[in-house]
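Internal ticket - ligand job 619, adenosine-5'-diphosphate:
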Amino acid sequence: MALLQISEPGMSTAPHQHRFAAGIDLGTTNSLIATVRSGVAETLPDEHGEHLLPSVVHYNAEGGVVVGQKARMKASQDPQNTLASVKRLMGRGKEDLTLLAGHLPYTFAETDSSVPRIKTVAGEVTAIEASAKILSVLKRRAEETLGGELSGVVITVPAYFDEAQREATRDAAKLADLNVYRLINEPTAAAIAYGLDKKAEGIIAVYDLGGGTFDISILRLSKGVFEVLATGGNSALGGDDFDHAIAQWLLEQAELEQTHDPSILRQALMVARDAKEALSQQAAVDVQLGEWQGRLDNTVYRQLIEPLVKKTLMACRRALRDAELDKDQVVDIVMVGGSTRVPLVREQVAAFFEKEPLVDIDPDRVVAIGAAQQADVLAGNKPDEEMLLLDVIPLSLGLEMMGGLVEKVIARNTTIPITRAQEFTTFKDGQTALSIHVLQGERETVEHNRSLGKFVLRGIPPMVAGAARIKVTFQVDADGLLSVYAEETTTGTRASIEIKPSYGLTDSEIETMLKDSIAHAGDDMALRSLREQQVEADRSLQALDAAMQSDGEQLLNESERKQLLAARDKLARERENQNDSEALKAAIKVLEKAAEFYVERRMNRSVRDAMAGHRVDEF
Ligand code: ADP
Ligand code: MG
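stdout (structure tokens):
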């Protein structure tokens, strides 16, 4: 694996070289791709002028695959082979399916693999593979429009996506042959699109009402870093429910509420959807279902959907409570998702937060636009100052040193991506392997930090202690994935490990670790210096033992040897019993003083040995 596999923003390109980068909103209902051209981020349409690509994939018996609008039209005829809303399955294991499967029209294959496989006429497919098809269509669209290959993309994911769901998204991108600069949270992308990251700080609420889902995210922006304080919402509430409410009303008006005819139900839903979208612009709309003709006006429409809108506000209240915030602390409200075009939604949100929400950017496109801006920066198309600081390392990362001490390599709150290298050396003469123990946390000693992983660097050429040069590089990529490489620089011997430091650590655990570190800061410092002196003492004792073994007989007389051994044993005892680092340091000094004459004799001898047989001017 290459050492700096992930390019660092701002350093990656020469200024004159523009790279094609794009932002992708991989949505449950619709997906989009956007890019920055001449400084402006815009979504890219297909050849029919459509920006939104329905997130639907249809598989046919010939092994063919259709994506988008054409696939969506197959959904009702051929639901088994038409995968829609696969985002809900991303990163989900078989054990999650019991909850979801009942709502899905698919047949799942019996399989040993933990990833659920959906049976289609074209074979078994996973949500990852279906997502990859959607991404491929968007990739092609962008590359055809831009006239070149994409060097990288930013893909958005819901803020509540866990590691497995994010990993699944990255896997889909890999299958689609896309280089992912970074995954960013959808609400963060929306906030970026509105330029909120340029503000110094504040609390931002992102209200995202899509087709089938509602998400509310409470973000805190400080010094360019977005922190997700709380997320909430309802994974089964969206514009589709508005359609259902209107369709129900239509069926009642047409006296068809008893019907089970799927084609009438489908027609009712389609009429409902068109009526809904028209009512975002106008006060009333003519509607027709079967024989029945009538008019749906705003008053009735509002009554139909008001209970649904109220539900979203309840979720907002809950999210604020989770974040321990009052609604008047929210500085900006960003509206995302097609359903926020509904005037009643805007009004109710404004009334709830007592503030006008931001609606100027097309709510369908705002996430993709923010992602495109971020991608442009990450591609190196912007000067360094524009680098967005989106993520920080929550806890310091470091290595175990002799004495059970932790040496921090990357401090907490460092923004990622980041690469830091530090040099270490061997402790013993002839040491040929070095154990690398990677730790996370703020405390000074190993036992008080979280162990992330261990590996061993072998094949170090035998040298005297302290002579080997081992460079250890910590690299945290944009998604928080940590790679640690160790290299012995004279021989190039290497070893490495990849770790996900955030894995399995909740916010509250991070908080506890931080609080502990502050509470124990004083003790930790004292313990650290004691451990350092213990290591020092060990080193002195070992050096003396090794020396006496090799030439003590020749260079020391009996009484000198006795004297030295007595001094040695005194330090060894202090090493075991002394709890005060200063006292131990003094004891080390005493031994060093006592051994000074011996060290001198050894040096003289080695110079003599080295010169033996050579002429003086050779040196
Ligand atoms: P998702 O994030 O789930 O992929 P979108 O953000 O694309 O979904 O939102 C899709 C929803 O927005 C659909 O329910 C659609 O009917 C609704 N929608 C789109 N345009 C309008 C409009 N003008 N008025 C009301 N609803 C709309
Ligand atoms: Mg969306």
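Auto-summary: Residues 27-30, 210-213, 238-240, 273, 276-277, 280, 337-339, 341-342, 364 surround adenosine-5'-diphosphate (ligand 1) (CB under 6 Å). Residues 239-304 form a domain with the Actin; Chain A, domain 4 fold (CATH 3.90.640.10).
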